Amino acid sequence: MEDFEIIKLVKKGDTEAFSFLVEKYHKHLLNFIFRLVGDEQIVEDIGQEVFFSVYKSLKDFDEQRGTPFSAWLFISARNRCVGELRSRREKVSLDDMAPVPARGKTAEEMLIEKERSEAIKSSLEQLEEPFKSTILKSLQGDSMEDIANKDGISVGTVKSRLFRARKKMKMLVKEYFGGKGYEEI
User: Fold this and answer.
1) CATH architecture assignment, domain 107-184
2) pTM higher than 0.90 for the full model?
3) CA torsion angle 158 161 162 167 (round to 10)
4) Residues 43-46: contacts with CB within 8 Å, 24+ apart?
5) What does the alpha-carbon distance between residue 80 and residue 46 come to, in Å, rounded to a whole number?
6) Domain boundaries of the chain, sorted by first residue
7) pLDDT class of 22 with cuts at 50, 70, 90
8) How far apart (Å, rounded) are the C-alpha atoms in residues 177 and 185?
9) Residues 45-57: pLDDT tens digits?
10) Backbone angles phi, psi at 79, to 5 degrees
């Protein structure tokens, strides 16, 4: 059953239907929250708060806008985690804090950047050979001709591998954030 169908059931009064969404996203949401706050003792509490908050505001969710439920859920979780990190910031003394390089970025921008970086790293680790080595060589600055010469293949094969690697990476990054998988695209 699709998320939108479940949401319609919940809006019609079937409160039990929401448990399907909780079951579907629970593990991914808790992993996401842990990566943001880094404290396993509060992950479950934040997860429950997010699900409860989303459930309460589900009446405002507009399926017609085309926003996936998963995006709405994870944005809510990110916002809740940012709030948690802000509240902690007030409780931590300056002596306890590690130095943060001043790059003109807000804490939220750095958090999002870190999350993106982890998604890409995780996706690269899941990529199969020969696509993984080809895209890594490309990311290191090797030209398609250099890669072809090193691997003993044609430039066309390099192009094909890079295309397929990028496509798979996009799918893996999307899955990392709780989006639809490759078969559903």
Assistant:
1) Orthogonal Bundle (1.10)
2) no
3) 160
4) 46/77, 46/80, 46/81, 46/84
5) 7
6) 3-96, 107-184
7) confident
8) 15
9) 998 998 898 888 8
10) -65, -40
Question: Smallest Cα–Cα separation from 59: which of 1, 12, 3?
Answer: 12
- Whether 43 contacts 58, CB under 8 Å: no
Coil/strand/helix, residue 75: helix
Pick the closest to residue 123 from 68, 70, 179, 75 (CA basis).
179
Instruction: Provide DSSP, 125-175.
Output: HHPPTTHHHHHHHHHTT--HHHHHHHHT--HHHHHHHHHHHHHHHHHHHHH
| Residue 57 contacts residue 45 (beta carbons within 8 Å) | no
Q: Length of the chain, please?
A: 185
pLDDT tens for each residue of 51-104: 898 888 888 877 777 778 888 888 888 888 888 887 776 544 444 444 445 456
Residue 182 carries which side chain, given as an amino acid letter?
Y
User: 163 is written with which tokens?
Assistant: 């295309």
Q: What is the CATH number of domain 3-96?
A: 1.10.1740.10
